[in-house]
Amino acid sequence: MLGVFGLAAAQAADPPPTQPAAVPRAIVLPDSCNTPDAMAVLPDGSLILSVPNFTDPTSPGVLMKIAPDDRVSLFCKLPLHPQTGGVFPMGVRQAPSGDLYVADCQVLDDAPNNSRLLCVRVIDGKPGAVEVVADRLNLANGVAIHGDFVYVTDSAIGQTDDGDVVSAVYRFRLDERDVQIKPDGDDPHLVATLKTVCREVPVGADGIDFDEAGNLYVANCGDAVIEKIVLNEAGRVVRQEAINAPGGMRSADGIFYDPAARCIYVADILANAIWAVTLDGRVELVAQDGDNDGSAGQLDGPSEAVVRGDELIVANFDRVFPGSVNTQPDKPYTLAVISKSARRPHAVPAASGEEQAKQ
What's 166's domain CATH number? Predict the structure, then answer.
């Protein structure tokens, strides 16, 4: 299968890999990887990249592997959904066991509640069986792992009476399998709900991550805020509030917490930007580009940024949304590599207590 992606089958005969060039730069993906989305950072510096391929679904969604020297290869295919005939991997994270948990977002299907949370068993670094952790999610999106649990966001589970989008966070034991989610927010695995008032971007809970203290952070995509959720040992919400003031970012897609910098990197897919949000709610601009094709390491509709050493690796989702800087999906399909030190202050205040209470 590696030949499909233009890679030599006999890896042992390859010349020694060269070190990546200085940042910024582009990691170019095969043409079959037209919509890269999220990444799991492995202990050796490799990345597992989810590729749902929404732009051209004739290429089934896959997981790719990015080596520390930026070489790209297929990690594994995923089983097609038995009802929809497709698979669209989005959020992906690695458990302490090495297994990968993957959100399968069936957003292209007209029928609701067909999304899944999958587990790819990993043995000696190689993919094994793929198991269904949970089914009947609506728009499975971001994934995080903390302790003995895996958490997944569902970006839309319903609406309030006044038309706001309601979204959710669910959690499952790492060993749970074949859970059938009860619709309408009536499921014991439900941890928290979010409300999104933005009508132009009716997408709620998106990226998700934890800090070292066990606080949960969820990106409210349409409202462009990061919500901090404090949980008790039973996984119930003790406190929930937005940490940044609305208006600084245009959207909040994938997020990644960096304990070294004590900030959350946020992909703003509408503004074609990456932001760093500190835990006290200050927003700083890391990188932003105009409309482009991503070939020179620019941002091109970013969906998530993760930390690898001193670099940020950014998935260029490269899709067009109302009001987005990006105007068309175009080749090459890329990841952008930028320096963490590129972060610079931006005049966006933290949310006040009054603003937090309004969220």
Answer: 2.120.10.30
Residue given tokens 């509640």 in the structure block = 113
Provide the edge-to-edge strand list for the sheet that holds 311-316: 25-28, 334-339, 311-316, 302-308
Please classify residue 12 by burial: count the beta carbons closer than 10 Å to its beta carbon, then call 0-12 exposed, 13-18 middle and 19+ buried: exposed
- Cα-flanking dihedrals φ and ψ of residue 13, to 5°? -85, -5
Tell how far CA 61 is from the center of its chain: 15
Q: Model confidence over 88-135: pLDDT tens digits?
A: 999 999 999 999 999 999 999 999 999 999 999 999 999 999 999 999
- Mean pLDDT, residues 231-235 taken together: 93
pLDDT band at 15 (very low <50, low <70, confident <90, very high): very low
Q: Count the domains in the chain.
A: 1
8 Å CB contact between 206 and 198: no
Assess if residue 9 is contained within a domain. no
Provide the domain limits for residue 208.
Answer: 20-358
Residue 262 has which token pair? 């004590």
Query: What is the structure's pLDDT at 350?
Result: 53
- Is position 151 within any domain? yes
